[in-house]
């Protein structure tokens, strides 16, 4: 279920993204970083064309679609992880770094190395999976994915405190950041609520402090079910608030909340509800109620 949710979301994101626009940019703008420097420039020359980007998109859509359905799961998840890492490397080689997709990168890598096609998959329907494995082989990857997502939030709070210290809680910090992001050319700028923040700047340290505490406490969602529901609900509200106030939205982070869902418990409740619906006797008709025994 986690595999289908994660790969399905990335599949939709890639399907709805225009790759032809990227193919219009000159390859000389690229500044490859890390392992991207090991690839020959001839590859980038062939890739950064409308046709090359369209072919790359087709490969990603096919691999992510197969991974979502659980068809040739082992191969599809590995191909999806590799292609998505390369896709992120190409985007970041143009100079704009964004950490929204990073949890998805790591989670796709975990799924590529985990037996995530043994039950909810077409491979299982075709009898192409193993019927029984040790439970730790399923539990450990889920725990690891939850830790990776929690670390994304927790480390974000640590970086803010390390860079800005308690100055991050100043009254002018949030209004200044929100207005800057609402005016620059690296974010969508359709929302203008940021310009009302200076009027309530004396209250903004409270909001910033609560958001910082939420990020620091996010790891509690790994171990405590009740805390998990509260923390994830706050997370959805937090990301919606950043979209309206700062024109920054983290859809990948919200989508990765799927790793915190207890799918076994969820499906058990669905089956229990379905059984009660089947067993519930139908109410007597009007004629039966009016007819004496």
In short:
With 293 residues, the protein is mainly α.
Write the layout of secondary structure elements.
Layout: H1 2-15, H2 20-23, H3 41-47, H4 50-69, H5 73-92, H6 102-112, H7 122-125, H8 136-164, H9 173-181, H10 204-217, H11 220-223, H12 225-246, H13 251-255, H14 263-279, H15 286-290
Helix pairs in contact: 1-4, 1-6, 4-5, 5-6, 6-8, 8-10
3D structure, described in words:
The protein has 293 residues and is an all-alpha fold. It folds into 2 domains: 133 residues; 127 residues, no CATH class. 63% of the residues lie in helices and 0% in strands. It has 15 helices and no strands. Helix 1 packs antiparallel against helix 4. The longest helix has 29 residues.
Question: Notable features of this structure?
Answer:
293 residues; mainly alpha; 2 domains
